[in-house]
Every structure is written in C-alpha cells, then in structure tokens.
UniProtKB/TrEMBL annotation:
Chemical reaction(s) catalysed: Hydrolysis of terminal, non-reducing beta-D-glucosyl residues with release of beta-D-glucose
GO annotations of cellular component type: cytosol
Sequence similarity: Belongs to the glycosyl hydrolase 1 family.
Broadest EC class assigned to this enzyme: hydrolase
Active site (UniProt): 163 (proton donor), 355 (nucleophile)
An annotated Gene Ontology molecular function: beta-glucosidase activity
The protein, known as: Beta-glucosidase
C-alpha cells in the first residue's frame, strides 16, 4: 500500500519569484519590489523585475509542466497586479493574465491550486501600516473577493497564505525579508494576529462568493522535530519541540497555526511572550478559526530531538560534515514523515506537502544537459518517507515539488537554483533537468518507482 489512486502530483511557484513584468499592464508595486531595490539587501543587487518572465512566457511554462506530467500547479497571485493600490480600482489586465493562465492549465489537464498570498504585500498598503493596520484583514478580504468572483468558476482549490512564519517573523522581527522591519515583539505579534484574521476573512469570503464548492487550505512552514528513536519518550519530545513555544520565534509551528485551526494560542505562548501576546477576543477567534478542508505544509529540513532522563527535551548534536543543500539546510528525509504525522494528529485535517525540494548550484553540462542527480536523490529519499506515512493510513492528498523553475530566491537573488527546469536568466531559455524526467517516472508510477 502506498499513495492513494487519486493522489495529486504537483509542482509549485510564487508570483514575485517567477512572473517578472513588475511594471507591465498596470501592476502596482509590492514590498518585495521596494525591498529588492534597496542597496546591499539582495545578493549582487538582483531583483524580481524580470525574474523568469513567466508573465509573458506562461504558455511555455505550462507546456513544460505537461511534458513533466504534473497533475496540478500551485501558483500565487500578485495582489498588486490585481489591485495596484491594494484596494479600490481593479486592474483588468492583471486579472486577464490569471484568466489566461488558468485556462491554459485546464486545457492541458493541469489542476490549478491558487495561493492568494505568497509574501508580496502591496506597497501602497504597506505605507498605511501593512499588517500592523487593523484594517488589513478587510483589505485582504476585498482582494480575495475580486479573485474569487473572477476565477472560482474554474478553480476549486485555494490556499489563503503561504508561510506566515516567514513574512511575519523574518519580515517584521528579523528584518531579513520584506518589508525588512525589526519591530518589538508586541508589534510583530500584532502583525501575526492581523494576518491570521485576514486568513479567516479570506476563508469566509471564498465560501460566500465561490461559484463552485471550494476546497480551502493554509500552508505554514517550520523545521520538523524528528524523534531520535521511536521510543514514546522521544516522540513526546518531538511533539513538545514542534508545538510548545520555548523561545520567541514564530517558527514554532503552532504559533500561527493553532489559532486558525484550534482557536487559541498554543500552551506555553503566554509564558514566553507575556504581555506582548495579543489578547484574542471571542469574535476574533471566531473569525480566524474557520473550518478548513486541508492543511498544507512546506517541508525542507528538520532536527532530531530526544527526552533526557530528567524529562527535558534536548536536541541531538549535529554531525560534522552532514549532508546539506546549497541553502545550508540539513538533508533530513525523515522530516517529511514526522512533520505530517504529528501535524495530522494535532489538527485532524487532510494533508498536502505544499512545498518540498532543494536548492543546488546547477549548471549546463557541455552536452547541454543539467545533471542534477543530487536533487533526484534528495527527492527520492523524502518521497520514500512520505510514502511510508501514506502506507500507515494518514490522509495524504498530494505533493507539490518546489519548484518548477529556477527563480528569484528572495535575498539570495538568482544564486540558488530550486527548479526542475533550468532557466538561463540572461535569455530566459528553459531546459528540463534530469530531475524533471525522473519526476515524470515517479508520477507515472504514482510514487511506486522512486529508483534513481
């Protein structure tokens, strides 16, 4: 027994990372446009102005997906392409782009999975306070309504937000991502609260205005706690490590997930954050805790933990010379087993891996091919662990590889390559890597053939 017969094999991208066309056809600026043009922020002064030029080459990209054999494409919509000022006047040409992309996907037998927000907050609204403004949930609901009214006659699958841990924590606390702020924790947590309220407002809006029965999810991320052994004690240590805050970091998965699924902050949050933690009113809990149809999770790495003789959770010391990707993330295939397992037990929702993949330093060989065998080996190891979990009866619905294309990798610019398709960023030329052909075999066998 492995993956279900209707298991969804997909691939994913994000608007700012692939679209380009930053000033084309009336698109407004996002915080990432501003952030990437700030001196000494992004590697080699790269930016997403052109990215992969998917705004103009979407038909070519869909044709590549069809060649790979993927059944679903997870992509995000640029809020400021649809609403240049974030609210108010709709940009018809921006909507037309997504109209055409959806139609092209469907014509090629590829199911669209739309993420409404993947970090590119409209700059015009950022100037009004961004996620710190208590009106931001209403702004997000207005944007959601525009998209739903236009695309929901053909699109069933919706993800409200991608990795709130990154755009709230890295963007508002550590200053490493847009908008590049280093705020005190009371303001960081306020932004997080408003983001979760925006998620809830979006779910309500989708259900109210969708033209066919919608299937709605949420896509957090985090480092998975992997039990060092299968003992009950070490498994309990992993649960505690993943879900009980022990330090001020929103990368404790539960901090931005428990409120939207369980209607409360996790146990231990008040102890860690004290008076900085916003009080959630009953009305706010009701808004953010809307029924979901599935939970997504973006999994790349993990860390091992154990319970010591005194009942304390400890992290296993990392090995010298351990396997790492070009992002310097540890290769931990067991994470794609334990993350979904522990999250499914806690949240009791059908599950998707909405991102998984690895950055590499790929280049074109002398014969014109891209021999990314490390990516094949990485993905094979992770999928074997995911298949093991499926065989145990956990309700796994799908897997989305990150990413279709080498793209703009945020602060690292174009210096890291995540794609199964190689992109020449000077010419825009696309070339399928060996991993793309391998993934076609995996999909054709429904994950039974993971051989290298």
């Amino acid at each position: 027994m492995g993956f279900k017969k209707d298991f969804v094999w997909g691939i994913a991208t994000a608007a700012y990372q692939v679209e380009g066309g930053y000033n084309q056809d009336g698109r407004g600026l996002s915080v990432w446009d501003n952030f990437s043009h700030t001196p000494e922020i992004v590697v080699d002064m790269h930016n997403g102005d052109t990215a992969c030029d998917s705004y103009n080459r979407y038909k070519e990209d869909v044709a590549l997906m069809k060649k790979i054999g993927v059944k679903a494409y997870r992509f995000s919509i640029s809020w400021s392409r649809v609403l240049p000022c974030g609210t108010g006047k709709v940009n018809e040409k921006g909507l037309e782009y997504y109209d055409k992309l959806v139609d092209e996907l469907i014509a090629n037998g590829i199911e669209p999975y739309i993420t409404l927000f993947h970090w590119d907050f409209p700059y015009a609204l950022y100037k009004q306070g961004g996620w710190l403004n208590d009106k931001s949930p209403e702004w997000f609901a207005e944007y959601t309504k525009v998209v739903i009214e236009r695309l929901s006659d053909r699109v069933k699958f919706w993800i409200t937000q991608n990795e709130p841990q990154c755009y709230i924590d890295l963007g508002h606390s550590k200053g490493q991502h847009a908008p590049g702020l280093q705020l005190p924790w009371n303001e960081v947590l306020l932004a997080g609260r408003n983001s979760m309220l925006a998620h809830g407002r979006a779910v309500m809006t989708i259900r109210k205005y969708a033209k066919q029965s919608p299937i709605i999810g949420y896509a957090p991320c985090g480092s998975v706690a992997i039990p060092n052994t299968n003992s009950d004690e070490d498994i309990e240590a992993a649960v505690i490590d993943m879900f009980r805050p022990s330090q001020k970091s929103l990368f404790t998965i539960s901090m931005l997930v428990d409120p939207v699924i369980l209607g409360r902050y996790p146990e231990g949050a008040e102890e860690i954050y004290g008076e900085d933690l916003p009080i959630l009113t009953d009305k706010q809990k009701e808004i953010m805790c809307q029924p979901l149809d599935f939970l997504g999770f973006n999994n790349y790495s993990g860390h091992k933990v154990y319970m010591n003789s005194e009942g304390e959770v400890c992290r296993v010391k990392k090995q010298v010379g351990r396997a790492q990707t070009a992002m310097e993330w540890d290769v931990m295939p067991e994470g794609i087993y334990w993350g979904p397992r522990l999250m499914s037990e806690r949240y009791n929702l059908p599950f998707y891996i909405t991102e998984n993949g690895m950055a590499n330093l790929d280049w074109k060989a002398q014969d014109g091919k891209i021999y990314d065998y490390q990516r094949i080996d990485f993905t094979s190891r992770y999928l074997a662990n995911y298949r093991k979990l499926a065989s145990e009866g956990v309700d796994l619905r799908g897997y989305f590889h990150w990413s279709l294309l080498d793209n703009f990798e945020w602060k690292l610019g174009y210096s890291r390559r995540f794609g199964m398709v190689y992109v020449d960023f000077e010419t825009g030329e696309r070339t399928l890597k060996e991993s793309a052909y391998w993934y076609n075999k995996v999909i054709s066998s429904n994950g039974e053939d993971l051989s290298l």
